[in-house]
Prior knowledge:
The chain is an alpha/beta fold. The chain has helices spanning 21-24, 44-47, 85-93, 105-113, 123-133, 164-172, 176-182, 184-199; strands at 6-9, 11-14, 70-73, 97-100, 117-120, 141-144, 149-151, 157-159.
Amino acid sequence: MxxxxxxxxxxxxLKVINVDTDxxxxxxxxxxxxxxxxxxxxxxxxxxxxxxxxNPDFVLNQPAYRKSQILVAGDNFGCGSSREHAPWALLxxxxxxxxxxxxxxxxxxxxxxxxxxxxxxxxxxLEKLFDDADRGSNATLTVDLENQTIKGPDGGEIRFExxxxxxxxxxxxxxxxxxxxxxxxxxxxxxxxxxxxxxx
Length: 200
């Protein structure tokens, strides 16, 4: 998993509440178990028209936000079914950080396991971030995980809270497999003990 330390990007404003995982990645794209290739399907029902052409009104189709790595979204982001394809699609598109006032629990946990930083802010702070994001390419945010800050284009700063263990995992690029591999020497030593006992 790619470590997350700091990130500077034009933030994309998605002023929609209760964005569920089916809106993030519709069910017809769940047949794959690969984590790549899903970025083109991200928010597909909002991004594309019925004929397959892009909807120019959708935020991620607008020139200023096509390469956004930070998404500023409305309350209760990631609700609905517990599909891990949702963070996969966000990550494959290039989004590494989602900022909202609240997240569904399973989606929130899945973000950390896939190298995405979900940040919870107050409603007042979210409105300020929406204002910054509305400025398009004229404004960038810098998310600093080590210092737990979001710095705005005008020098303003928002502090956010994060569980220390999750912070450690993101900073060091450790998913569940990576955490297990950190203990590989102890696991191997234990296996050797078992073998020795079996032959004794």
